[in-house]
Amino acid sequence: MMHPIDCRTFAFWCEDINDTELTAEMREALIQHKASCASCADLANVTQHQRRVVHSLPARSVPVNLAVGLRVLASKEITRRAAKRSFATRIGEWRAQARGWAREMWRPFGVPTAGGLASALVLFSALLPTFVRQAGQNIDTPAPWFQSAEVEALSPFGVNLDQITIDVRVDSTGRVIDYTVPQDESAWTKNVQLRRAVENNLLFMKFEPAKFFGQPATDTIRVTIRRSQVEVKG
């Protein structure tokens, strides 16, 4: 048999007097306390009135997108939990987010950027021929930033011909490293003594090396040796 119920216990269970899950013994004890206590009876009446008012309120309709929203939230939560399970899964999630960001952010700029690059390439191709300097046909015309080699001192030896023309290769120190004879003037090269005399002249001649942007450089110049003078062409 249950002990008598006090007011505090009644206040806790008064909303559940009509609950079918209560035992018969518990419900009978609550009803007996309500009959013997005026304040608890008033509390029970107020509680029942509130329940009737609440039940009389119109039922609110469920939003149409509620199910879809709940599914989206559930999907995001599943993805978030899966990302925490392994580092590889987290890397895959970061990649997917990066691809989505790139697709959403860069796609609007793709067509204008491609058009701008294509226009720049066409314009550059059209202007490129104006930047190309035509190669000089004559090696005797030096560029402004290039200074040909020059004869600094003549040789004390002479030659037995009125005129000999040779192309002399001068290195960056002013020494003769090689020479060639134009094809139309190569007849004298068959004379060994004359060829040695020309080589002696070149050996004792002093040359000022060519200058490329102010620095010594190798150059080929055309030298014409006469009995009385030497003529040099770059």
Task: Describe this protein's structure.
The protein has helices at 7-13, 24-36, 38-56, 66-85, 87-131, 192-204, and strands at residues 146-147, 150-153, 163-170, 176-180, 206-208, 210-212, 215-217, 219-226, 230-233. The model is unreliable at 134-138 (pLDDT under 50). A hairpin with a 3-residue loop joins strand 8 and strand 9 (230-233). It starts with 6 loop residues before the first helix and ends with a strand. The chain is built from six helices and nine strands, in the order αααααββββαβββββ. Strands 4-3-8-9 form a four-stranded antiparallel β-sheet, covered by helices on one side. The protein is rod-shaped.
What helical percentage do the residues reach?
40-55%
Beta-strand residue percentage: 15-25%
- Please provide the count of β strands: 9
What does the average pLDDT come to?
Answer: 77
Quaternary organisation of the protein chains? single chain
Give the termini separation.
Answer: 133 Å
Outline type:
rod-shaped
Please list the strands of the largest sheet in the order they lie side by side: 4-3-8-9
Task: Give the number of helices.
Answer: 6
Order of helices and strands: HHHHHEEEEHEEEEE
What Rg is obtained from the alpha carbons, in whole angstroms?
Answer: 55 Å
What structural category characterises the helix and strand content?
A: alpha+beta
Largest β-sheet summary: 4 strands, antiparallel
The domain count comes to 3
Task: Show unreliable segments.
Answer: 134-138
